[in-house]
Specification:
Strand content: under 5%
Order of helices and strands: HHHHHHHHHH
Mean pLDDT: 91
Oligomer: single chain
Number of strands: 0
Number of helices: 10
Largest sheet: none
Radius of gyration: 17 Å
Helix content: 55-70%
Low-confidence stretches: 1-9
Structural class: mainly alpha
Length: 230
């Protein structure tokens, strides 16, 4: 039996959005380090006002659902996340194109925040890993649309990362699972739920509506979970 490989056609150009996202994350980290207590102790106003915390979200700090994805708690935290973002994000951006990729990233970040709040709304949460898990979800859908098989390289990557998610203390399980679900649903929306190509087909009203629905559902889930803190 011949093994199917994940070899999707790519759009022209370089992964500028991924590079930009990495640059923004690094810049924000440097700001929080400068305001904090050293390279491994980011803090200060940017950090405090941007991290994900359920009671703060309930009392009007809606931006935390997105800003938390651009904050990191230590040098190893941001290093691992930016390595994964550069490696995985570059591949997916070149397959989807910059605009669809950025939409995927932001929607996955929202879904990751919703998942983190759903599991533990009082936990202080930061990190881009929810959005990165969304990229993994996108890889799974793109590979399925190409090969017709769920079991493949993307599923293996997801499995390995989920193993670390459940075995390493301190990781936001809800954030990772929420981001993964958001990425899968967002990419399905971009492909009009299998009726088009996620990168080259027309997104149309179905695709745009699907993306908006995933984002809106993430925000609604987050606010439903934290409603008791208002």
């Amino acid at each position: 039996m011949q093994r199917a490989r994940m070899r999707m056609p790519r759009t022209a150009g370089a992964a500028y959005v991924t590079w930009g996202l990495v640059a923004v994350n690094v810049l924000v980290y440097l700001v929080t380090v400068a305001q904090g207590r050293g390279i491994n102790a980011p803090a200060g106003r940017v950090f405090a006002d941007g991290l994900l915390y359920g009671p703060a979200v309930a009392n009007g700090d809606w931006w935390r659902l997105l800003t938390a994805a651009f904050l990191h708690g230590s040098i190893i935290h941001i290093a691992l996340n930016m390595l994964a973002l550069y490696w995985l994000g570059s591949m997916v951006e070149l397959q989807l194109g910059p605009a669809r990729y950025l939409a995927l990233y932001l929607v996955s970040g929202l879904a990751g925040s919703a998942g983190a709040l759903f599991v533990d709304p009082e936990r202080l949460t930061v990190g881009a890993s929810g959005a990165i898990f969304g990229i993994l979800g996108a890889m799974l859908v793109l590979e399925y649309l190409q090969t017709g098989q769920v079991v493949g390289q993307a599923l293996l990557l997801i499995g390995v990362n989920l193993l670390f998610t459940f075995r390493v203390p301190g990781i936001s399980v809800g954030g990772h699972l929420g981001g993964l679900a958001g990425g899968i649903l967002a990419t399905l929306a971009l492909s009009r739920f299998g009726r088009g190509h996620a990168a080259y087909g027309r997104v149309g009203l179905v695709g745009v509506g699907g993306l908006v629905l995933v984002a809106a559902a993430s925000v609604a889930l987050a606010y439903w979970k934290v409603r008791g803190y208002a």
